[in-house]
């Protein structure tokens, strides 16, 4: 998830490349085999998945014995636990003691309260370009140093570097990426329904009908987390309206009352308006948080609460909490083409320095290197925009294919639209786009009403107009 556009976030990416990624590596039938939560990151020993020291280090880090660091992020559960292992390797190599600080969303508000209290973390992982821009405008964020910049230049495409810039300066290091154009499915449920992986939106509706006729609810939707609904919208809108319109709406250069938005919402309503197609109906979806939307799709054998769940590659973390095996029990297909080509929507989390120090700069340098990313890649449910992370670091063929497609896309991707918007519109629970789409899920017949709410909230957040 990410928000607020700046000149460095201009989406210069070509539609042909987005289509190529979707139709190429991601359009493969992804059917290969899959493969302590306290606050102290260094409690885990070496932090490497095998429990031993990491070999083949590509970046030299300073000795920081006696130094302490705090790192804040909104990550929870397995995602947080896996990141702590990365921090533990940093501790092993430098001697710095690192504490993970769980943050609440929106993280900018969380950081504001910490800074007001005189206790900002040293580094924060920000899930929105808009949040980076806000942190710079508030004079919280510090530019990255020469060592981190060298790692970025060596390991990242220009597009991923630019997303972390504000006013031409590098403030964010994108440690984590996401492919948000995937639909995961319970293989047994689709097989029993005689359904195949859809390539188009029309095919998806047919697959949903086959699943429904077999006695299984087609979709699980984590509507309690409004950001999942923005992701649904973005994929439909990008594929249907095209990249140029997507960029215009992301920057509020066209209004949410535009006919293209009406068309996308009307398309979404083809699924959202069918209460029997959603696990628990709309009311149930609005009470289901994202992790549960995934796990309920892969529990219950061939009679799960739902057969399919839309979200990014990171859903693997939650699939891992079930007995389902990625590649056999849990499979995935690219978000189907609604228009001329399938969408490719990306997201990510960037490390930003809030307290400039040798240790903080060293940590961000480490996170920009392949060394850090390889550790978390091996643990699954993680995708790095670092082009020098070997495909072999990913634990299964599904994840390797997704990673290969991300790197192959280079600069040719579209970044999550709500993450480019001001946080007040695109990144605050219970407000703005999140709330407006939750209301639309509750009443998908009121397309015009949804558009009016979205435009009102967008205009206020962007400063009064398109």
Mean pLDDT: 88
Query: In angstroms, what is the radius of gyration?
Result: 21 Å
Q: Compute the number of structural domains.
A: 2
> In percent, how much strand structure appears in the residues?
5-15%
The CATH homologous superfamily of the largest domain: Periplasmic binding protein-like II
Biggest sheet architecture:
6 strands, mixed
How much helicity do the residues have? 40-55%
Q: Outline the low-pLDDT stretches.
A: 1-54
Distance between the termini: 22 Å
Number of strands: 12
The DSSP helix count reads 21
CATH architecture of the largest domain: 3-Layer(aba) Sandwich
CATH C-level class of the largest domain: Alpha Beta
The dominant shape is globular
CATH fold-level name of the largest domain: D-Maltodextrin-Binding Protein, domain 2
Coarse structural class = alpha/beta
Region (Disordered): 39-59
Keywords: Signal, Transport
Family: Belongs to the bacterial solute-binding protein 1 family.
Signal peptide: 1-34
Structural account:
With 466 residues, this protein is an alpha/beta fold. The chain has two domains: 36-179 and 345-395, Periplasmic binding protein-like II (D-Maltodextrin-Binding Protein, domain 2, 3-Layer(aba) Sandwich), CATH 3.40.190; 182-334, 3-Layer(aba) Sandwich (D-Maltodextrin-Binding Protein, domain 2). Helices cover 44% and strands 12% of the residues. It is built from 21 helices and twelve strands. It has helices at residues 15-23, 77-94, 107-116, 129-137, 146-155, 158-163, 187-193, 201-213, 226-241, 243-250, 259-272, 281-286, 290-295, 315-319, 358-367, 370-379, 397-408, 417-420, 423-426, 432-442, 447-462; strands at 68-73, 97-102, 123-126, 165-166, 169-170, 172-179, 182-186, 219-220, 308-310, 330-334, 345-353, 414-415. Strands 1, 2, 3, 6, 11 and 12 form a six-stranded mixed β-sheet that branches. The longest helix has 18 residues, at 77-94. The chain is globular. The two termini are 22 Å apart. Residues 1-54 have low confidence and may be disordered. This is ABC transporter substrate-binding protein. Keywords: Signal, Transport. Residues 1-34 form the signal peptide. Residues 39-59 are annotated as: Disordered. Residues 44-54 have a biased composition (Gly residues).
């Amino acid at each position: 998830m990410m928000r607020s556009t700046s000149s460095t976030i201009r989406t210069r990416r070509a539609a042909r490349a987005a289509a190529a990624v979707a139709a190429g590596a991601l359009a493969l039938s992804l059917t290969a085999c899959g493969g302590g939560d306290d606050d102290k990151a260094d409690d885990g020993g070496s932090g490497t998945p095998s429990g031993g020291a990491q070999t083949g280090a590509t970046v030299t880090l300073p000795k920081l014995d006696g130094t302490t660091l705090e790192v804040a992020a909104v990550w929870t559960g397995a995602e947080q636990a896996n990141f702590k292992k990365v921090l533990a390797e940093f501790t092993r190599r430098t001697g710095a003691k690192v504490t993970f600080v769980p943050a609440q969303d929106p993280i900018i508000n969380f950081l504001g309260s910490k800074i007001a209290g005189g206790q900002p973390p040293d580094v924060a992982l920000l899930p929105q370009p808009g949040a980076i821009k806000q942190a710079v405008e508030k004079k919280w964020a510090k530019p990255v140093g020469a060592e981190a910049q060298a790692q970025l230049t060596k390991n990242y495409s220009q597009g991923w570097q630019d997303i972390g810039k504000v006013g031409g300066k590098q403030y964010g290091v994108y440690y984590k990426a996401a492919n948000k154009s995937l639909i995961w499915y319970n293989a047994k449920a689709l097989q029993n329904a005689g359904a195949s992986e859809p390539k188009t939106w029309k095919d998806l509706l047919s697959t949903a009908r086959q699943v429904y006729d077999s006695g299984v609810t087609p979709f699980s939707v984590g509507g309690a987390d409004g950001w999942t609904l923005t992701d649904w919208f973005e994929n439909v809108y990008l594929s249907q309206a095209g990249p140029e319109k997507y960029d215009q709406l992301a920057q509020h250069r066209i209004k949410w009352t535009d006919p293209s938005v009406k068309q996308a919402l009307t398309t979404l309503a083809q699924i959202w308006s069918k209460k029997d197609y959603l696990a628990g109906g709309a009311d149930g979806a609005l009470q289901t948080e994202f992790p549960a939307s995934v796990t309920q799709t892969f529990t219950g054998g061939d009679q799960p609460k739902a057969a399919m769940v839309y979200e990014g590659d990171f859903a693997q973390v939650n699939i891992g909490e079930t007995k389902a095996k990625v590649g056999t029990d849990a499979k995935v297909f690219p978000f189907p083409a609604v228009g001329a080509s399938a969408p490719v929507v990306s997201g990510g989390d960037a490390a930003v320095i809030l307290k400039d120090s040798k240790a903080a700069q060293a940590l961000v340098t480490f996170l920009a290197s392949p060394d850090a990313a390889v550790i978390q890649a091996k643990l699954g449910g993680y995708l790095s925009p670092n082009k020098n992370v070997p495909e072999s670091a990913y634990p299964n063929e599904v994840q390797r294919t997704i990673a290969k497609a991300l790197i192959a896309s280079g600069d040719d991707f579209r970044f999550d639209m709500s993450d480019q918007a001001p946080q007040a519109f695109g990144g605050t629970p219970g407000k703005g786009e999140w709330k407006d789409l939750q209301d639309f899920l509750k009443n998908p017949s009121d397309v015009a009403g949804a558009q009016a709410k979205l435009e009102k909230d967008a205009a206020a957040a962007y400063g009064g107009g398109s």
